[in-house]
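User: Design a sequence. Structure:
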């Protein structure tokens, strides 16, 4: 009995999140704002990629960013240093953002922008279940997490429109095959576009912009 009650409440929580996410997406579209949810492993390069994207796209879009992090403003400060209007969402002990956080934070950055990036908390598990209302969902992993990141986290790759395999420059010393990681994504989620990057140098950024249709 106890288990049935728990399952029912979890389902309603997820359904509520999905409803709210749809509402957020509608609001963003009405304001003419395109949006990208950036999920991915801890330290895989999410903020570095957003810094590079912001530099590359700042003449084409007025950009805003919401950065999810447990307690610090480090990521928002890094992205903000590129002239992006940023707002940090501190989740406390929560390991992912949800639509409720976004619904409260979105007004802080959405005036006078046409493109919104949302950096999720570094985590390859929970964010998969919590869409945030963004047009595109992207997941970032890097070779430094080892060779099994995709196989071990199939759900988030199925949710993602675009998967980035980052830190290509470290593939050789890590003895991790970028080609194999790409094949793993294609096996698990054939519709997900895969972009191989070295965010530190900016390699792959043009392909990412195309994949995100920006
Ligand atoms: N060698 C190498 N290092 C990279 C690359 N991309 C990012 N890094 C480094 O990896 C570290 C983590 O990068 P971040 O961009 O902070 O990663 P993140 O995913 O935002 O991290 P969290 O938000 O803390 O989960 C930093 O020291 C980056 O400079 C890359 O392509 N190659
Ligand atoms: Mg970050």
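Assistant: Done.
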């Amino acid at each position: 009995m106890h288990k049935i009650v728990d399952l029912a409440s979890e389902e309603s929580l997820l359904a509520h999140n999905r409803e709210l996410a749809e509402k957020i997406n509608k609001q963003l579209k009405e304001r003419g704002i395109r949006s990208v949810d950036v999920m991915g492993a801890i330290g895989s390069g999410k903020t570095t990629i957003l810094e590079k994207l912001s530099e590359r796209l700042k003449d084409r879009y007025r950009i805003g960013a919401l950065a999810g992090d447990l307690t610090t403003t480090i990521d928002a400060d890094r992205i903000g240093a590129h002239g992006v209007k940023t707002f940090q969402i501190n989740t406390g002990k929560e390991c992912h953002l949800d639509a409720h956080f976004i619904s409260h934070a979105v007004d802080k950055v959405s005036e006078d922008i046409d493109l919104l990036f949302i950096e999720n908390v570094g985590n390859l598990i929970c964010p998969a279940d919590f869409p945030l209302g963004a047009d595109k969902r992207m997941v970032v992993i890097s070779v430094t997490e080892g060779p099994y990141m995709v196989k071990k986290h199939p759900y988030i790759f199925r949710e993602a429109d675009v998967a980035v395999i980052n830190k290509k420059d470290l593939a050789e010393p890590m003895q991790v095959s970028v080609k194999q990681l790409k094949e793993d994504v294609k096996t698990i989620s054939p519709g997900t576009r895969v972009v191989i990057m070295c965010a530190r140098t900016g390699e792959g950024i043009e392909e990412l912009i195309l994949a995100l249709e920006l």
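The chain has one domain: 2-211. Strands lie at 34-40, 63-69, 85-90, 115-119, 136-142, 162-166, 193-196.
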